[in-house]
Design a protein that fits this description.
By secondary structure, the protein is α/β, with parallel strands linked by helices. It has one domain: Rossmann fold (3-Layer(aba) Sandwich). 29% of the residues lie in helices and 20% in strands. Helix 2 links the parallel strand 2 and strand 3. The longest helix is centred in the N-terminal third of the chain and has 16 residues. The protein is globular and about 45 Å long.
Length: 164
């Protein structure tokens, strides 16, 4: 069994129009929400072995803030250039290349790719808001060979959701 946490980066700032899209930082809400969402996973006894992240400023900042909440160093981060502006197929390729010894991974990226990947994998119709975390389980002993609908959405959490 594999567990994948599909995460859309936390809320970014549009305050500085001179920033390229790639360089946009998190805004105050994003800086609050990223660690809070990771903390909610920890409260459920969950954390990833590795975090695969887009290199965009807002995504890697989200990953770093979450790693701290998991009690991990930045060594668990895997920066994957192809996640920035990735399609569902690109994200599937990134996941399929991961070490089969890992049981739990987190991938942090951008919409629409993240929502498309979640919906393809779990045969769902969700749109991930910023800082959302979708917990998906796949009955497989490897990260590749997955097909549409092979995942099961176990839990979907987002900042405005009341803690259960």
């Amino acid at each position: 069994m594999k567990t994948l946490f599909i995460v859309r980066h936390a809320k970014s700032s549009w305050d500085n129009s001179s920033h390229a899209d790639f360089d946009r930082p998190l805004n105050e809400r994003g800086i609050r929400n990223a660690p809070e969402m990771a903390r909610r996973l920890v409260l459920r006894g969950l954390s990833p072995q590795h975090i695969i992240t887009s290199p965009a400023n807002r995504a890697i900042s989200t990953a770093r803030l979450m790693a701290v909440q998991f009690g991990q160093s930045e060594e668990i981060l895997i920066v994957e250039d192809s996640i920035y502006e990735a399609s569902r197929q690109d994200l599937h390729r990134v996941i399929s290349r991961q070490n089969p010894d890992y049981g739990t991974l987190m991938i942090i990226g951008h919409n629409p790719g993240m929502s498309d990947f979640l919906n393809w994998l779990c045969d769902e119709e969700e749109i991930l808001s910023t800082a959302s975390i979708a917990e998906v389980q796949v009955d497989s002993n490897k990260w590749n060979g997955w097909e549409r609908g092979s995942g099961k959405l176990i839990h979907l959490d987002y900042p405005k959701k009341q803690i259960e």
